């Protein structure tokens, strides 16, 4: 799966599962502020991403995540390691 498809799939998940307005999703936008998810929502996000991409995310993966681009990069890195 290429970068563009990873980004597109993540965005689709955010819009469908968390009712995020796709207009606020941009690579440089703050993930936390834009999504306004509580801690349970983040757990759901991790589970959904893991099941859709076949990767394992741990708390340490999120330490440097500020923007959507950071999140895309984590998923992309995990997919690269997996293959």
TrEMBL record:
Post-translational modification comment from the UniProt entry: 4'-phosphopantetheine is transferred from CoA to a specific serine of apo-ACP by AcpS. This modification is essential for activity because fatty acids are bound in thioester linkage to the sulfhydryl of the prosthetic group.
Tagged with keyword Isomerase: no
Pathway membership, UniProt: Lipid metabolism; fatty acid biosynthesis
InterPro entries assigned to the protein according to its UniProt record, in alphabetical order: ACP, ACP-like_sf, PP-bd_ACP
Cellular localization per UniProt: Cytoplasm
Keyword field: Cytoplasm, Fatty acid biosynthesis, Fatty acid metabolism, Lipid biosynthesis, Lipid metabolism, Phosphopantetheine, Phosphoprotein
O-(pantetheine 4'-phosphoryl)serine sites (modified residues): 39
Domain Carrier: residue ranges: 1-79
Membrane recorded as keyword: no
Family that this chain belongs to: Belongs to the acyl carrier protein (ACP) family.
Task of the protein: Carrier of the growing fatty acid chain in fatty acid biosynthesis.
HAMAP family reported for this sequence: Acyl_carrier
Protein known as: Acyl carrier protein
């Amino acid at each position: 799966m290429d970068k563009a498809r990873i980004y597109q799939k993540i965005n689709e998940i955010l819009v469908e599962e968390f009712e995020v307005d796709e207009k606020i999703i941009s690579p440089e936008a703050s993930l936390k502020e834009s999504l306004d998810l509580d801690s349970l929502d983040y757990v759901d996000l991790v589970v959904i991403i893991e099941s859709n991409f076949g990767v394992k995310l741990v708390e340490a993966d999120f330490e440097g995540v500020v923007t959507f681009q950071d999140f895309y990069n984590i998923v992309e890195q995990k997919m690269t390691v997996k293959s």
